[in-house]
Write a structure and sequence with these properties.
The protein is mainly α and about 120 residues long. The two termini are about 30 Å apart. α1 runs parallel beside α3, α2 packs antiparallel against α3 and α3 packs antiparallel against α4. The chain is built from four helices and no strands. It has one domain.
Length: about 120
């Protein structure tokens, strides 16, 4: 899932900036829902948060890969300095790592069997 969206974000010609903004708002919504569920302790709400979270972080993966592609193009064409490009590349790699870890944790929450 992560790899497919990474390839899609790299190869698409469509600008994913507005899509990324929507996914970022979805991320804020997930955080709020998680805080509410912390007090409610609802298994159903936790299940829904996990499903929506996987969708949001999958979308954020495509957006982050496209951002990294644009950073690389900016360095190549001289719009961004080499040093700034390296710094932005490291931050971009960190965001992709966080996307992957969050997808993994949410999938574990969805499909992991609980031992009660």
């Amino acid at each position: 899932m992560f790899g497919i969206m990474a390839v899609m974000g790299y190869t698409t010609k469509k600008d994913l900036t507005s899509f990324g903004r929507i996914m970022s708002m979805g991320l804020i919504g997930i955080i709020v829902a998680m805080l509410i569920n912390l007090f409610l302790n609802s298994d159903t709400m936790g299940y829904l948060i996990s499903i929506i979270g996987v969708a949001v972080f999958t979308g954020l993966t495509a957006w982050d890969v496209q951002k990294l592609k644009n950073i690389g193009a900016g360095v190549e064409y001289g719009e961004i300095s080499e040093v700034d490009g390296k710094k932005l590349g490291i931050l971009g790699a960190l965001t992709l790592y966080l996307d992957f870890i969050n997808i993994f944790l949410l999938l574990l929450r969805l499909f992991g069997g609980r031992r009660d």
